[in-house]
Every structure is written in C-alpha cells, then in structure tokens.
Design brief:
Helices cover 55% and strands 8% of the residues. It has 77 residues and is mostly helical. The chain has one domain. A two-stranded antiparallel ribbon has the order 1-2. The chain binds zinc ion.
C-alpha cells in the first residue's frame, strides 16, 4: 500500500487525487478507504471489489457523459 503513504490517494474510479485522510471521493462518491480494509483480501473479496470498481467506473463515465450533454445543452440555450 505504498500509494497511501505518499500522502495522496488517487481515486481508482475518476482519477482525482485527494490528500491523506479523505475517505470518500467528493467527485464520484467512491469509498477511498474500501481498499484499505482489504490489505490481504481473499480471492472472493478481491473479485467482489473489482466488480464494484468496474460498476462504479461505468457509472462515473455515464455521469460524466451526461454532465457534458447538460453543458452543451446550456450552450445552445
Ligand atoms: Zn472519484
């Protein structure tokens, strides 16, 4: 877990970097601490975490896309 000791945590979902101590990504809502609990995850826990991450990423991409559409909608008036 060397990335946590550097003082910055990069959100695995949206890629935003946060300072140490931030528990929830304020941009996408990902639980940044969820990985800390899984210091030595079983294969099943790892699979579950990967699945969760995959879904969160998909949702984030979807959300980002709809934000862009809203912005373009605004520009058009
Ligand atoms: Zn995030």
């Amino acid at each position: 877990m060397s990335d946590i000791n550097k003082g910055k945590i990069k959100c695995p979902v949206c890629g935003q970097e946060w300072g140490k101590g931030v528990e929830i990504c304020e941009q996408c809502g990902w639980d940044l601490e969820s990985r800390t609990y899984l210091a030595a995850p079983s294969q099943e826990e790892q699979n579950k975490w990967n699945k969760k991450l995959e879904i969160a990423r998909r949702n984030w991409q979807h959300l980002k896309q709809s934000k862009v559409e809203v912005e373009e909608e605004k520009k058009r008036g």
